[in-house]
Amino acid sequence: MAPGQSTAVENQKLPVWRLIAAVLVLVAMASVLLALAPVYYEDFQLRQYIQSIARDPRSATTPDDTLRSTVVTRARQLDLLIRPDEVQISHPAGKLELQIKYAVQMDFPLYQVDLHFHPTAAGK
Question: Is 54 helix (H, G, I), strand (E, B) or coil?
Fold first, then answer.
């Protein structure tokens, strides 16, 4: 190729509408992530809480209904609507095990999504 001669690809500029569309898509994705982040953080806090309960040796002798109500109360403090029947408590080999299966419904302008969580904690 001779000096000063450019290819057709180099002369083509990105159309402005494509640039705007790309920015809008990135903004939409960031908005969705920011809307979902608090729910995932609340789930993280709930996981930490049930792990602290499971590790506490006194919890193994605490009645299941008391543990269940404690977990549900903490979940409500975190704005997670967990029903008592979603908290499963078992005692395999004398150790406390907590399992929670719940879903959080997120409503966006164009769609609705259910986020399913399943935190589990076991005593030592």
Answer: helix
